[in-house]
What does this fold into?
Amino acid sequence: MRGITLDEISESTKISRRHLESLEREDFDSLPGGIFNKGFVRSYARFLGLDEDQAVADYSAANNEQPSPPDQFPLEVHQKPNRELNPRRSPLPMILAIVALVGVLAVLWARNRGHRSESAGTRPAPPTSTAAAAAAPVTARPVAVETHSAPAPTPTPARAVAKPTPDPNSFVILVRAKEDSWVSLQADGKITWEGFLKANKQRFVRAGKRVVLTTNNAGGLVVRHNGKIVGALGSESEVRTLTFTTAGLVQ
It folds into this structure.
C-alpha cells in the first residue's frame, strides 16, 4: 500500500527477501522458527512505522502461539547506545598508570646512573711513554699525587614487573562475521551480547565453564577457541546453536 519494495526492506533490516516473501504469504514453515520469526516481524513492522508489539501479537495469533511480553526480543536494526549503561569513567585508573610509569622511569634512570659511575671509577690509567720518561731531567723530583676515587653507588635493582598469566580456569570464544549474521552469545548462563554482527566485525566472550552460540547463518561465521580456529559450523543461512567448554566445541 505504501509502495515500498521487499528489496528496500531487506536492505535495511538485513532480512533475506526469501524470508520476507514467506512472511508476506504467512508461510511460517519456511522461516527459521522460534525467536527469529518474531524478530523478523518486529524489524519489518519497525521499518514500515507500524506498531511492533501489535504486529508480533498478530503473528502469534496467526501461528497459534502465545504472544510474548513486549521488548523481550533483543533484535535491533538501528540500536542507539544507552547512556545509562555507559557511565562516565573515573580518571583514577589513568592516574595510577601515570604514577606507575614515572616509578619505572625513575628506577631505570638510577640504574643507568650507577652503571656510568662504576665505569668511570674503574677506568684504567693511560700507559707511560718510555721515551718521555728517558727525556725527563734527572734532577727533577717526581711528586707523588695520591688520588682517592669515590666508591661507585650500588645500583638500585628494578622492580620486577609481573607478567599477565592466562587464567587456566577460563577460556575465550571469538566470533568474526564473514557475512551479516544474527548472533547470540551466552557465557555461563548469562547473555553477554545479541544482535546483528556485520561482515568483518567480531565479538568475543570469556567464560569459566560454558559458552552457547546461537546464529541464523552458521556458514557466515568464523569462530576461534582460545585463539585456535574451530572447523566449519554449518552452511549458509543455517540456524544453529553451538556449545563450547574449556575443551572446545561439544555440540
Notes: The beta strands are 171-177, 181-187, 190-197, 202-207, 211-215, 221-225, 228-229, 240-245, 248-249.
